[in-house]
């Protein structure tokens, strides 16, 4: 049904009770004047403007996209469509799409042929390989490409070139999810399923504003709340979000103190013996160490650190401790904050200590921020090895070399694959000389933007940007490659609960734009990459042959796709692992109390949660010889940048429901653009009064790194905290000289020691009325 998804982003309620199936509600949106009878054909796909993975169909008329509707049978959304997806398809037809390659001549980007553009990239690559070796080349990709494209990029970077420098912008949004899962379960992969919402009696959301980041999943939760025997909600968030307003208990800790709060919750659960001792003894290691550490974190201590009443912490602990079916979800409020992995691991610990895993309503979802972030991790394009293999396990590297028919020494495994912040540091110091950026916009999304612009603008750095619009990053490039968008190419992608969808090509890309897979394969052929038998590498040539190759790479690993095919996925979406033993997929991991954590099989040997120091195989084997789930503890330490007299506020950044990432697509859609056209500042009423600011006033926010101007919104955020949405850059301002709009002008160059995820929620800031504004 049609609805005004701007005014009503979550749509009408369809209440249901525990254990019942979520009722169907089909949302649709067509171009003005069209009805479904006018549509030539409907092409299956899934949502691309968030991480939920909603099943959709694209409407095509006369070779053009003209609308979208939800798929009633889809297990993820049962027909519902997020506001961004209802309108976002219009971005494909935006008149400023990139349609021809561009190269830099005499300081300007000018149109060129594909031969010229790719020739320049290949020539520079060959010269660097000859003169400086593989480590002079790096790749920085996205969480929005397809599985086949990530796998191809990983094969080219780690295999053909032999560089360790490959990561995705998933480092900004989902690296801590992966790290927390590896620390607890020995391997990536979400234990839970979205259907756990249908069964849970308590849902705990830690730093997860699901109402705006995954609106369809919030609709599912709202429908449970509207039905009989609704679940209780725990919300941990310093802002007064829709989730907080619906919560049974809302905890609003001071940014940077999440770990202290989690330790206090575990203190109460263990002290009051809300522990499933049989499960803990049978399925975990590390309980005694955990109990000893959290014994030092009574609610009174956490209250002093977090500025949250001790009684409220006890109330939250009682909610968790009394749950019969506990679902826990985590997102950026934890992942992008201080001690990110350590805090996220404690969420896993709560569910394990309570024995709440592997059965309906009992699960953990360490959420993603982008639609294909899971594929980036599985395929090895984000700082991991392909197929959740362990870079420090020689047998895993040898297995990958055999799959690719390459020599083992060709695949770098002297250290973990390089994380994004280190890749940019190498570019800064000059050891990395070619950086290929695909489908992401670091000139707006990375922290400390003045530094990032300086790095990307260096004459000695050859910057290749592969994208669909001339982004702020593309404007700095030496070569710009026009890419096809979603709906203009075929491939699979996997959402946050391991659901795999096939997205079919619906229309042709404009002009000379090409699918990302075709661009990567063209590069490989121009470079004449070969395997050890002298055959072209990679060996695949289109999306389906790439998928078949990926299936072989996934065989026997936790993310096993061998039971899937394009034909099977045309029938329905399926959760991995899907293999001969699980031909219909797997709804929940670890239902049998067995984990992907055996020393010879695990993806990672773990790290110290405070320092990030890695463990080796012998240390891991001594701690966890039987491959159980691991309960890991960590002391709270203060953030590196604390509020001070000069900068008295804690600044956090985040999202709005109407925009996605740096607005390269959503900012070009009239409904979404007009719903949230400009950056704003959220602050508390008390803080606004103290600084003589009123609703709508223009304020200037400063940190040691820069200044941003934004209109004030007075909301229920906790005192002492400021919030800016991070989406807003400069491509639509017409003026690149005054850089006072992007929230990341203010954020700090710092990252979590375990996940290496940048910290966007711990900057110290000051605020004042903007000069000349009232």
From TrEMBL:
| Annotated CDD domains | MopB_CT_Nitrate-R-NapA-like (cd02791), MopB_Nitrate-R-NapA-like (cd02754)
Cite the Gene3D superfamilies for this sequence. 2.40.40.20, 3.40.50.740, ADC-like domains (2.20.25.90), Dimethylsulfoxide Reductase, domain 2 (3.40.228.10)
- Which InterPro entries does this chain map to? Asp_de-COase-like_dom_sf, CT_Nitrate-R-NapA-like, MoPterin_dinucl-bd_dom, Mopterin_OxRdtase, Mopterin_OxRdtase_4Fe-4S_dom, Prok_molybdopt-oxidoreductase
Return the annotated region ranges for Disordered. 1-24
BP terms from Gene Ontology: nitrate assimilation
* Keyword Iron among record annotations: yes
Q: Where is the 4Fe-4S Mo/W bis-MGD-type domain?
A: 40-96
- A Pfam family hit: Molydop_binding
GO molecular function terms attached to this record: 4 iron, 4 sulfur cluster binding; metal ion binding; molybdopterin cofactor binding; oxidoreductase activity
Q: Which UniProt keywords apply?
A: 4Fe-4S, Iron, Iron-sulfur, Metal-binding, Molybdenum, Nitrate assimilation, Oxidoreductase
Q: Which cofactors is this protein said to need?
A: Mo-bis(molybdopterin guanine dinucleotide); [4Fe-4S] cluster
Q: Which family does it belong to?
A: Belongs to the prokaryotic molybdopterin-containing oxidoreductase family. NasA/NapA/NarB subfamily.
Protein name per Swiss-Prot or TrEMBL:
Molybdopterin dinucleotide binding protein
């Amino acid at each position: 049904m049609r609805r005004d998804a701007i005014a009503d982003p979550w749509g009408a309620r369809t209440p249901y009770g525990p254990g019942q199936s979520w009722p169907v509600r089909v949302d649709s949106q067509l171009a003005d004047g069209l009805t479904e009878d006018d549509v030539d054909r409907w092409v299956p796909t899934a949502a691309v403007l968030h991480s939920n993975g909603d099943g959709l169909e694209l409407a095509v008329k006369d070779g053009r996209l003209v609308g979208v509707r939800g798929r009633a049978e889809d297990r993820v959304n049962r027909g519902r469509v997020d506001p961004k997806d209802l309108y976002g398809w219009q971005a494909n037809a935006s008149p400023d799409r990139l349609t021809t390659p561009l190269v830099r001549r005499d300081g300007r980007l000018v149109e060129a042929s594909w031969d010229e553009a790719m020739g320049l990239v290949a020539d520079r690559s060959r010269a660097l390989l000859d003169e400086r070796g593989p480590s002079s080349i790096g790749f920085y990709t996205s969480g929005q490409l397809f599985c086949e494209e990530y796998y191809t990029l990983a094969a080219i970077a780690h295999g053909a070139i032999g560089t360790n420098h490959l990561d995705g912008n998933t480092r900004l949004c989902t690296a801590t999810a992966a790290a927390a899962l590896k620390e607890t379960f020995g391997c990536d992969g979400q234990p839970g399923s979205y259907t756990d919402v249908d069964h849970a009696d308590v849902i705990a959301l830690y730093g997860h504003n699901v109402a705006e980041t995954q609106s369809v999943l919030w609709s599912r939760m709202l429908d449970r709340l509207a039905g009989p025997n609704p679940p209780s909600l725990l919300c941990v968030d310093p802002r007064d979000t829709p989730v907080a307003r619906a919560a049974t208990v809302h905890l609003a800790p001071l940014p940077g103190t999440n770990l202290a709060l989690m330790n206090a919750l575990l203190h109460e659960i263990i002290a009051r013996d809300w522990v499933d001792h049989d499960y803990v003894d049978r399925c975990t290691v590390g309980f005694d160490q955990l109990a000893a550490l959290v014994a030092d974190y009574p609610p009174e201590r956490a209250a002093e650190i977090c500025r949250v009443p001790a009684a409220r912490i006890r109330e939250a602990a009682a909610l968790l401790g009394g749950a019969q079916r506990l679902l826990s979800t985590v997102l950026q409020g934890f992942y992008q904050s201080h001690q990110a992995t350590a805090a996220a691991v404690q969420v896993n610990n709560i569910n394990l200590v309570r024995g709440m895993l592997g059965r309906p309503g009992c699960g953990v979802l360490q959420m993603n921020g982008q639609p294909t972030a899971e594929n980036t991790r599985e395929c090895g394009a984000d700082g991991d090895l392909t197929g959740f293999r362990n870079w420090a396990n020689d047998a895993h590297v040898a297995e990958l070399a055999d799959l690719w028919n390459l020599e083992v020494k060709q695949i770098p495994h002297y250290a973990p694959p390089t994380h994004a912040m280190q890749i940019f540091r190498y570019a800064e110091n000059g050891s990395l000389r070619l950086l290929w950026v695909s489908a992401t916009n670091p000139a707006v999304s990375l922290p400390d933007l003045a530094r990032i612009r300086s790095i990307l603008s260096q004459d000695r750095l050859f910057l290749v940007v592969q994208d669909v619009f001339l982004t702020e990053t593309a404007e700095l490039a030496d070569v710009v490659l026009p890419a096809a968008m979603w709906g203009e190419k075929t491939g699979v992608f996997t959402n946050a609960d391991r659901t795999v969808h096939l997205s079919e090509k619906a229309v042709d890309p404009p002009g000379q734009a090409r699918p990302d897979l075709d661009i990567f394969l063209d590069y490989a052929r121009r470079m004449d990459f070969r395997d050890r038998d002298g055959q072209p590498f990679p060996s695949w040539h289109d999306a389906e042959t790439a998928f078949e190759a990926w299936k072989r790479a996934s065989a026997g690993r936790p993310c096993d796709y061998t039971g899937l095919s394009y034909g099977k996925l045309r029938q329905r979406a399926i959760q991995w692992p899907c293999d001969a033993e699980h031909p219909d997929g797997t709804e929940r991991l670890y239902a049998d109390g067995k984990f992907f954590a055996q020393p010879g099989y695990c993806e990672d040997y773990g790290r110290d949660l405070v320092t990030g120091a890695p463990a080796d195989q012998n240390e891991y084997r001594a701690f966890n010889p039987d491959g159980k789930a691991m309960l890991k503890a960590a002391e709270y330490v203060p953030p590196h940048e604390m509020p001070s007299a000069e900068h008295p506020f804690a600044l956090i950044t985040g999202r709005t429901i109407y925009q996605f990432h740096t607005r390269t697509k959503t900012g070009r859609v009239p409904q979404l653009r007009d719903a949230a056209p400009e950056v704003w500042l959220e602050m508390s009423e008390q803080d606004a009064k103290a600084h003589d600011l009123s609703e709508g006033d223009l304020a200037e926010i400063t940190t040691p790194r820069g200044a941003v101007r934004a209109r004030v919104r007075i909301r229920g955020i906790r005192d002492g905290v400021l919030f800016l949405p991070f989406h807003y850059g400069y491509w639509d301002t017409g003026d690149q000289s005054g850089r006072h709009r992007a929230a990341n002008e203010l954020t700090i160059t710092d990252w979590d020691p375990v996940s290496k995820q940048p910290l966007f929620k711990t900057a110290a800031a000051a605020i004042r009325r903007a000069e000349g504004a009232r």
